[in-house]
Structures are given as structure tokens and as C-alpha cells.
Amino acid sequence: MIASLPDRIYEAAFVPELWPGVLEELSNVSNSAAASLVLFDDRASPKFIATDLIAPVLEAFDSANGWQKSEEVQLLFSMTPPSAFVYDADYFPPEALASNHLRLDRTRPLGIGGQVGSFVVMPTGEMALFSTERWLENNRPTAEDMERLNALRPHLARAGLIATRLGLERAKDTVSAMERIGLPAAVLSSTGLVLAANAMLEAMASVFRTVAFGGLAVGDAQSDLLFQQAVDSVRGRSAVSVRSIPVAAQDDRPPIIVHLVPLHRSAHDIFSGGDILVVATAVKASSMVPSPTLLAGLFDLTPAEARLASALSRGLALKDAAAGSNITVKTGRTYLERIFAKTGTRRQSQLLALLKSTEVLSRR
């Protein structure tokens, strides 16, 4: 079942009534009691969707203005989210967890204990919280539970980007979906042919270019190599799994992240038989956007790779960054090579520039 879960995650991004089933499976693969998705936007009230067991708890929490009252939620916005799923007892101060009676008074009678969650910050400024609820009798997650969740996190991040833009409403067709997303976007066929593109993407001549046989390419050669590999991956022609591609800043244009979202099942029908949705995002200044976690979380880095990237972005030498991550320098070099491959950089100076450019933008 877990092998088909990524496709179902992407499908739910466009057909939100499918989220409860996806979240139920997310709960099952992590040996949890329930799961939920909460979308935060600094311009609107949070929206949420959940499995049956925890849905009434979230509804009551929302009715009691829990988002404004909960110390946990306030800390969520003030602490830098890690680029992985975390167990709440390992992340929040004990007093913050113990004081959240709006949640505890409703979850304890259900036999629910702690939470395992991941805060996914979008380049557009919103944030998605994917959370699983642990049974009291099986409270602390195992390493295997966390590994399964973190393997799904990049798919959840990209689906969360679509879900935040659509506002948990169903996309009806290609035109309405691309308008609602409000980002530069194009739909490709299984052969890479551009079936539709909105005006926002067509206006990005410095980022995208058309190629022979109606295909699409990225102007930057290194980024285009990653992009074409990702297209082949979505089409099943490559084992490469990276589907978020960085495009370095140019002149007065900020760094761009190009996401490839596979269109299967109902999403395939919504987009008139399209197979790949290409969406471009630029980093937006927002109180919700921490950096460098933003880039680390979106480029399919493992938690260990993300920690090393974050340390390097602070100006640490590889030796010191490795020591701070409790790994050997040799392992650190291996992680660094993987980070280079996933971010489209070739040297540590390029990686540092990419991470720092996002940090500057997030402070504006």
C-alpha cells in the first residue's frame, strides 16, 4: 500500500475529499491512531482536514479559538521547523505540551497520546502541518515509523503546496485549477509535450524555454539537467526521485523552485489527460518562512542531509558541520555530494550562495 501512497497524496491535492483516506493510510504506515492536515496562511484562518477519530477534536479546538490560545501553536511559528517529522515530546518544551488542555482534555479519553508532525513551509509563505496522533500505549514512535513518514515527506510537501493554493477545494478542470493555484504553471503529457501553460509561466522567458516537439526546458543548463531527469522520473523512465528543482537567482529575479507533480487517477482527468503539472515558485517574504530550512525541506533532502545543509549555510566548515551533526567527515562528504546533486550545485560556495539568497529574501 505504501508504494501507491505517493500517487494518492498527489491526487488528494486536487481532490481534497480523498485526504481522509490518504491520512488514514499515513496513520497506518506509522502505527498511529489518526492523522490530520492543517493549512496555515498569515492572511486567513487555518483550514484542516482529518481522519474520523481526530476530526471532532480539531473541530472543537477550532471552535474554542485554539489556534490563538495554544502555546504549542505559538511556538510552532516562533521555532524553526526541522526538515523532518518530529515527535512532539522531543521538540516542544514539556510545559507547553502539558498546558494544552484544549487538546489533552479531548484526546486522552480517546486513548491518544503525543503527536508526530512535520511543518512544511512553502516558498509562497503558507505552511502545512501534517500530523499523526500516537496511541497512549504506543506513544513513542520507532525509528522505522519515522523513516516511513520521512520517506513520504517530499511528496506531502509538494501536495501541500497545491492544497494551500486551492484552499482544500476541489479543482474542476485545467483552466480553473491553474487559475486557482495562482502560480506559473504548465501541464505536460507523458512525452513531455506542453498541453497547457498559463500566462504567468509564459511570461517567465528567463526561466523557461520551449524546445523541439513542443517540449519545455529550463534556461539554466544545470537546472535543466535536473528538470529533464525529473520529467523522466515522473514518466517512469528514470529512478531519480527528486522533483523540486532549484533555479539560481538572475539579475533582479529571485531564486526559483520548479516543482513537478505527477497527475494520476482523478487528477489526470481534471487536467484533461495531462500527466505532469509543472509549478514554479519564488521565495516570498513572510513571517512564516524560516531559512535555510525552507530550501532544505523542499529539495528532497533526508533529515541528516538537511541538518548538514543548515549547518553549512551558517558558514561552518564541513569538518565542524559534520561534528555538529554527529557524523564523520567522510560521511559528511557523502551527504554533501548528495546535497549537490539534489540542489543543482557543484561546489560548497554555490550551495552557500543558494541558501543565503533565500535567507535574505525571508528577512525582507
What is the rounded Rg?
20 Å
The outline comes out as globular
How many helices in DSSP terms? 18
Task: Kindly report how far apart the N and C termini lie.
Answer: 43 Å
Report mean pLDDT, rounded to a whole number: 85
So, CATH architecture of the largest domain? 2-Layer Sandwich
Q: What is the H-and-E element order? A: HHEEHHHEHHHEEHHEEHEEHEEHEHHHHH
Q: Largest sheet, order of strands side by side?
A: 2-1-5-4-3
Report what the structure shows.
- The structure is a single chain.
- The protein has helices spanning 5-14, 19-29, 55-63, 66-69, 71-78, 88-91, 94-98, 101-107, 143-166, 174-181, 199-202, 221-234, 265-270, 293-298, 303-313, 318-324, 329-343, 348-363; strands spanning 34-41, 44-50, 86-87, 112-121, 127-135, 185-188, 194-197, 208-211, 215-218, 244-247, 256-262, 276-282.
- It has 18 helices and twelve strands.
- The chain has 364 residues and is of the alpha+beta class.
- The chain folds into three domains: 2-166, Transcription factor LuxR-like, autoinducer-binding domain (Beta-Lactamase); 174-282, Beta-Lactamase (2-Layer Sandwich); 293-363, Arc Repressor Mutant, subunit A (Orthogonal Bundle), CATH 1.10.10.
- A five-stranded antiparallel sheet has the order 2-1-5-4-3.
